[in-house]
Amino acid sequence: MFIGICGSICAGKSTIAQYLVEHHGFTRVSLEHTTKTIDDIVNGESPNDHVNGLVRKLLPAYITTPSQTSTSARSKGHVFPSADDLLDFITKHWRERWVTTDVPTEGILDMYIRRPFFLLISVDAPLTVRWRRFREREEKRQQRHRNNKQSTSSSAGGAALQAEAEDDEEEEDPLTFESFAHLNDTQLFLPQTGRLPLMSRATVRLLNTSPSLAHLYATLGNLDLLNPDRLRPSWDSYFMALASLAAQRSNCMKRRVGCVVVRDKRVISTGYNGTPRGLINCGEGGCGRCNEGQGSGQGLSTCLCLHAEENALLEAGRERVREDAVLYCDTCPCLTCSIKIAQVGISEVVYSQGYSMDGETAAVFRKAGVRLRQFVPPANGLIHLEKTDFCS
């Protein structure tokens, strides 16, 4: 498995990579030219000359880059001169676990993402949160600098005192919040090299407002980032995706529902909701009941729309369903459909979203001996690490 991590300044990229190293046995890999690439990005391209100067002066100290921090990777020979070399190496060792924060351009991402064992994760946080982390990092850096100077002074004697005074005079001006915001804009939004397009392509997009390292690690543990479904969908994920795709063909103006009937892991039929063949599409006014905007469960006797499950069952036919057939539907079947599903001999129903009649439907299936279960895929899309519910 190969995980790439991209994101904004001080969002937590290296911290998440370190979590994967410490808790899941990943190894860091990086590119030699990372720092140079960042300098190239900001050199002469920012509209603000003051920010250009600050970036060139402060970026190496403030922004963690893999080529600077991955001492273990460097010592083990896991720093590569190019993305081609890195990818060639990982392809030969693809069964092992690798992680990088070196995803600097969309061109390199396109190379990585061709590999079916690659997963892109992005991480972001509010600007004020990242500014606070930035200042905390600066305070620690300055403290280390002072400690080093004190150690040098004590060992070098009086000659070092003059040098120390000169160093104090040359101490860089602290980066203001406004300059940090400009630096953030440079990193994210430059037309050719901004990181935002990379972040938008991530399978998992983390919003990291975690107040502590312990909280972040605990939340990452609950996400099950290594779930193989994210790389190669399970059968449930695969067939539910087909049901969701079928739903896009719905011609009903009130709700989109898709359904797939499967036997022996082979698709027998698909269906979506809408008016029957030969009638005007519901979305074009063909069903008066739907177009009048009546509430859920009201006026069903006058509805002209077939349900997705009905369409799929009609397409399959009783002889093709037989035993052990499974019906996948992106919405839990209604009571009327549940009776028909039981009649044709479906053995199991798998659904994604609930509906207003779930209790009644479950009761029918229980009496008819039809298994009913809800499919819950691994969390993808936008995930707020301080919330237990995930948004996609």
UniProtKB/TrEMBL annotation:
GO molecular function, a single term: zinc ion binding
Gene3D superfamilies: Cytidine Deaminase, domain 2, P-loop containing nucleotide triphosphate hydrolases
Known cofactor(s): Zn(2+)
Keywords: Hydrolase, Metal-binding, Nucleotide biosynthesis, Zinc
Residues making up the signal peptide according to the UniProt record: none
Positions with biased composition (Low complexity): 150-163
Enzyme class: hydrolase
An annotated GO cellular component: cytoplasm
Annotated ranges, domain CMP/dCMP-type deaminase: 234-372
Region of interest: Disordered: 138-168
Keyword Methyltransferase attached: no
Any single biological process term in GO: nucleotide biosynthetic process
UniProt cross-references to PROSITE patterns, sorted A to Z: CYT_DCMP_DEAMINASES_1, CYT_DCMP_DEAMINASES_2
Record has Membrane as a keyword: no
EC number: 3.5.4.12
Family that this chain belongs to: Belongs to the cytidine and deoxycytidylate deaminase family.
The name this protein goes by in its record: Deoxycytidylate deaminase
